[in-house]
Design brief:
alpha+beta, Arc Repressor Mutant, subunit A, 6 helices, 114 residues, elongated, three-stranded antiparallel beta sheet
Length: 114
């Protein structure tokens, strides 16, 4: 398209877009949310937790990574409310925050496998 080409958008279409467009702050939050899924290590952790509740040591062992690296990524996942945790004595067990996370992972994988 050249710079001189104008697109005519109807008032009705503009109204629909305006009604559906989330506020800027929500769009920024959504962008941050999706950034979390842009890291393969975090995705691996989410898939591990999709299968079972686990402590940092077990996640690190399963993924062949250091506990420090896992703890760092879990902190990010907790900040975005993607994982939750419970304490049992001195051990903290992590699990997915809710079923939405399962849906996001499943739909994302379905999309790239098409």
């Amino acid at each position: 398209m050249s710079e001189n080409t104008f697109i005519q958008v109807s008032e009705q279409t503009l109204k629909i877009i305006d009604e559906k467009m989330p506020p800027e702050e929500e769009l920024q939050d959504l962008a941050e949310f999706f950034k979390v899924f842009g890291d393969a290590t975090r995705l691996k952790i989410l898939y591990v937790l999709l299968c079972a509740e686990m402590c940092v040591y077990d996640i690190a062992t399963v993924l062949g990574m250091t506990q420090s690296a896992i703890s760092h990524q879990l902190r990010v996942l907790k900040q975005m409310d993607l994982v939750k945790y419970r304490r049992e004595g001195k051990t903290i067990f992590y699990s997915l925050a809710d079923s939405h996370i399962v849906t996001i992972l499943s739909q994302g994988l379905d999309h790239i496998e098409e």
